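Consider the following assembly input.
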Amino acid sequence: MKGYTMGRRERKNLTRILVALVLFAVIFIVDKVVVLGEVFGGPYGWLFPFALYLAVYLLIGYDVLWRAARNIVRGQVLDENFLMCVATLGAFALAIFRGVTGQEIEGFDEACAVLLFYQVGEFFQSYATGRSRSSISALMDIRPDSANVKRGERVETVDPSEVQVGEIIVVNPGEKVPLDGCVVSGASSLDTKALTGESLPREVAAGGEVISGCVNLVSQLEVRVEKPFYDSTVSKILDLVENAAEQKSHAENFITKFARYYTPAVVLIAAALAVIPSLITGAWSEWVYRALSFLVVSCPCALVISIPLSFFAGIGAASRYGILIKGSNYLEKFNSAGIFVFDKTGTLTRGNFAVTQVTPAKDREEILRLAAIAESDSSHPIAASIVACYGKTPEKGYSLTNIAGEGVMAQRGEDVILCGNEKLMQSRNIPFTAPSGVGTVVYVARGGRFVGSVLVSDQPKEESREVISALNGMGCKTVMLTGDNEAIASQVAKDLGVGEYKASLLPQNKVEEVEKLLAEKPARQALCFVGDGINDAPVLMRADIGIAMGGIGSDAAIEASDIVLMQDDLRGLPLAKRIAGKTMKIVLENILFSLAVKAIILILSALGITNMWFAVFGDVGVAVLAILNAMRVNGKYLLGKKKPAPTAGK
Amino acid sequence: MKKVFKMQDLDCANCAAKMERAIGKIDGVKSVSVSFMTQRLSVEAEESRFDEIVREIVKVCSRVEPDCRILI
């Protein structure tokens, strides 16, 4: 936040307000001591204080007067500038009326003060928004300005969008990586803080992937570009952040709708208050004065500003921990999240499967060789682990057929290798023996005869248990979906403390399960689906809130989800929940508090119990308090049991 | 067609709401969102008349808040 400096216009405004405040204070005190109206005395004595206060009034309010006049010409009658002018000029007129009719001279100070404090409030609002905006633009800092492309012998500096896929770019220490790519030569550390909130630099060397938006820390890297700029991580993230506020929350919509009727309603009541009781009682100046006090609180701006400000601060706070929230409506919804549905693999567990057992052990080499042939084409982590365990390049020349939910068939002439789960074996009537351990079992058969099995298992992530218990503690239901069999699912679920689990699901079953859960849940609760973004885009879309993990590098996940955890760390979930909870609490406080204060001012003014001073102080005061309250959202949060690692902003 | 525009000097939250309402009334505009905090206008409108609609939007916005400019 310290990075925010006021613009020229703001500084000028601040100076003007301070000068006006000092002048006003001097005149006001002198007036109270010597009574300016009696300095010259006589029937025109009121002119002296009037002139002094009018000078301050014009100094502080010339822009409001100008805008009011301009907007009237444009047909904007219920413009807050205009209403403020009516209130203050009306107060002046009443004071002049008192002066002319020889009553006690008073009211000039009030008219002047109303506009002065109105301007103080306006300034404070613009300062607060500026500060808040600049905290988000720290996130925008990831935008690379240029790329150094190697073309022939020369290195040209061009706009990142002009670089073609396949070209080699040079990234010097201290520069941002402009496009996603693969390191060709050099080794260095990359700072990914702005992207993920992770403060530990990431080491890269030749052959490693680099993601745009990271800062090169140590030494020069040459990178082969793999994605055009508009498709690179940095563009996707910027796009997401810039459009974050497009999706508005119910609270924001309520407030704008309210504001739409509030101003005309207050103005109408004010008009009625000025005319009707006056006609009855004849006390015109008294009732007109009360009506003018109404106009002082006619601007709903404080309310309209503090609500989006709170949401914005919430989104900003989350982004500092690498949690990207796509709109304030999702923040609002996330607060009412009651069911967390997790994909198991890669989300609750590490997803880096390893072969833990091959049965029978004497045929290990042969079983792995056959399994590797069948699994060589799949990106599924289980397949990858088998290929990795085999350690050699699988034989080519087999045509591979995927059998959904069962496994893979590899065929080369008469040679048929089947590789998959027990359903695959059962459907082909191949007798098989199950191994003893718990994990995913891949059965291998060749030529219709069972050869052996490979046991692959996955480890839960360190933080999974802590996160599940935190969510359960918040009163949320936790559900785990997995394609794995019952035995593995129940063990992992028990291990982590997940409330419910559904095992042996095909990808399309996951959507069905989520739909079932959606139908069962109470309407006010939101259902979140948490996945790693691989193969679960449809489920991410279907859930009330789709949350993708480890968003870096997975465009599909960024697009399909509503919340992205940039860092592959589940502790972002309870943290985001706390941020959402705090934001919504503050939003509610602000709405109720602002409405209550405005209502009290209106009632007291109508009854003539208070005066304009009270109205303007109440109105500006409540605006300032609401804004300060909104700023509280952007405080510090603890990420799980570890120390927080805030990145930008503070 | 959907497009996002940046806005400069959008200083008043209520004006953003007024602009949003005014733009929503323009013929051919399917959906519109004016975000006060991010100073962005996102609008979805008929493709064939898009440029014409954008001109209309600029006019409407400057009527609501003459200080605010839409960067095209």
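The longest helix of chain A spans residues 572-607. Ask yourself how this observation constrains the way the partners meet.
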